[in-house]
């Protein structure tokens, strides 16, 4: 089990701001949380080195890229062995349309995938030519996203 990193109020403020604006300058960040720029930069670097900040990314508009169809796919496997799961996870990890792969419990499935594609034809191609051909996949159940109701990337930081 991973250990929890202890954060003070400045660390929480830094993380809150960076989760919403990862491109903010150190000067602006320092002013926003009332710290000196050198102290702020030192804290950000410590948070990065600790592994709490794992990276900075641009969030893209899938529709503007022609990726209008999002689906959730529940996958059932034939055997629950480490080798079978490792192979499946490596295979889906190499599929660019797979945004998320979760090993789950409490369902009639072993995995849930979140995928994004252009349209139903592209979905059919992904499903039949890539996903169902992975050894061990025995069941697939698809649900299509009609609308994103909540779409956060920021984690709750507590207080």
TrEMBL record:
It holds the Pfam family AsnC_trans_reg. One of its GO terms (biological process) is response to amino acid. SMART domains: HTH_ASNC. GO terms for molecular function: sequence-specific DNA binding. Residues 7-68 form the HTH asnC-type domain. One of its GO terms (cellular component) is cytosol. Keywords: DNA-binding, Transcription, Transcription regulation. Transmembrane segments: none annotated. It comes from the Bacteria. The keyword Transcription applies. This is AsnC family transcriptional regulator. It comes from Pseudothauera lacus.
